[in-house]
């Protein structure tokens, strides 16, 4: 039996699995390792943290297949020479490894950011953030560091859930959502202003302790009750060991060949937020990479030609609370109810197709 081990059953891993599932040959066994017992919809983690979504809503069951085994465990190390994945409770051998562990927060070496800020980057951390917010008095102060997509979605949803909370967003550049067109940025900024989210731009955070965020060259102090970091991501640290057989792109993602294999080591494949790409990491990109890798495996098993289509992404969609939103789809700006409805539809389809 050939052992394929998939580490990470998020957007990329589950998309690979769905692509190969109906066609797994008799001599292939697939083992999927994840710390969670199900697939989760990561783009909705902000709503777990704000309290607007029940945790059941972000979970989708793993697909069942006689030659697929799921192991719930914490992955701790890759032993590449030994072809082993070391987990907290067991070691799993592989013939082929698919690395899809996603990303973690990047604190950019800001002292104690790791210790004192909350996160919406994993299911467990988003739930912990929610507990901290639920424990606040109703006029407590939540500071959100980072005015990108997840920071904006979190701030607006938090406002809907907790009308009296004081919410401050700190953004390093001159505007929220710096990578989106001006019309979108202005619309979102107006929404945040109207909903009393205090947005501070051109703010460079230099240190965080247990009570205050310090910013700027003068180290001004901003007191907080809960501080949530949404300011940056980096590839999962376990991907660093793969860089010995590859190169890093400017985001430290692992460069791969057209078939997602490491350039200098056979039978290890990287997809999702850890894989280098001309595009920024996203669920959409991870899904396509998982699909293409699945197609590659099918061509190997059934001796056909692998011809991946060039990747085209549709754009970005964001929520502003439960009724409105923003987006840039095929270069068209969308504002108001429509992007909110489209995004809900996309996430609903993903959840029900992947479950
Ligand atoms: C709040 C938020 C909002 C977002 N909104 C959008 C959006 O609107 N559109 C969009 O395209 N993208 C969005 N993203 C980004 C998107 O979710 C990711 O790009 C996508 O999930 C990456 O897929 P992946 O398979 O690489 O990683 P993931 O989907 O994160 O999957 C990684 C898997 O690995 C598992 N794992 C990680 N470490 C370990 C370990 N040590 N042991 C065991 N298991 C482990 C995790 O449990 C997880 O199942 C958002 C992200 C966040 C946090």
Automatic annotation (TrEMBL):
Pfam families the record matches: Pyr_redox_2
Enzyme Commission number, as recorded: 1.6.99.-
Family: Belongs to the NADH dehydrogenase family.
UniProt entry keywords in alphabetical sequence: FAD, Flavoprotein, Oxidoreductase
Name of the protein in question: NADH dehydrogenase-like protein
Species name: Aneurinibacillus soli
Keyword hit for Lyase: no
InterPro entries xref list: FAD/NAD-bd_sf, FAD/NAD-binding_dom, NADH-Q_oxidoreductase
A GO MF label: NAD(P)H dehydrogenase (quinone) activity
Organism classification: Bacteria, Bacillati, Bacillota, Bacilli, Bacillales
Membrane-crossing residue ranges in chain numbering: none
GO term, biological process aspect, one: aerobic electron transport chain
Cofactor needs: FAD
Record keyword Flavoprotein present: yes
């Amino acid at each position: 039996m050939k052992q394929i081990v998939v580490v990470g059953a998020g957007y990329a891993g589950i998309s690979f699995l769905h692509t190969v599932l109906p066609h797994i040959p008799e001599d292939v066994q697939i083992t999927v390792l994840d710390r969670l017992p199900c697939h989760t919809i990561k783009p909705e983690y902000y709503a777990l943290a704000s309290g607007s979504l029940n945790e059941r809503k972000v979970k989708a069951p793993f697909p069942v297949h006689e030659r697929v085994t799921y192991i719930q465990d914490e992955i701790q190390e890759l032993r590449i020479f030994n072809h082993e994945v070391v987990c907290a409770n067991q070691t799993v051998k592989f013939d082929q490894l698919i690395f899809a562990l996603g990303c973690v927060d990047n604190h950019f070496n800001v002292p104690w950011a790791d210790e004192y800020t909350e996160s919406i980057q994993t299911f467990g951390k988003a739930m912990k953030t929610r507990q901290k917010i639920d424990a606040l008095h109703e006029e407590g102060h939540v500071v959100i560091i980072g005015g990108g997509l997840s920071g904006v979605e979190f701030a607006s949803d938090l406002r809907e859930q907790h009308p009296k909370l004081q919410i401050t967003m700190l953004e390093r550049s001159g505007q929220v959502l710096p990578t989106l067109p001006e019309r979108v940025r202005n619309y979102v900024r107006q929404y945040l202003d109207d909903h009393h989210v205090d947005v501070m731009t051109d703010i460079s955070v230099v240190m965080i302790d247990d009570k205050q965020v310090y910013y700027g060259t003068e180290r001004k102090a901003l007191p907080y009750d809960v501080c949530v970091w949404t300011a940056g991501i980096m590839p999962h640290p376990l991907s660093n060991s793969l860089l010995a057989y590859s190169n890093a792109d400017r985001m430290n993602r692992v460069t791969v060949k057209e078939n997602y294999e490491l350039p200098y080591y056979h039978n290890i494949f990287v997809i999702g937020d850890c894989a280098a790409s001309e595009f920024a990491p996203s669920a959409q990109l991870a899904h396509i990479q998982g699909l293409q890798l699945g197609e590659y495996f099918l061509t190997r098993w059934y001796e056909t030609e692998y011809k991946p289509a060039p990747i085209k992404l549709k754009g970005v969609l964001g929520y502003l609370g439960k009724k409105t939103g923003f987006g840039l789809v095929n270069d068209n700006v969308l504002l108001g109810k429509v992007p909110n409805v489209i995004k809900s539809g996309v996430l609903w389809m993903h959840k029900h197709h992947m479950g």
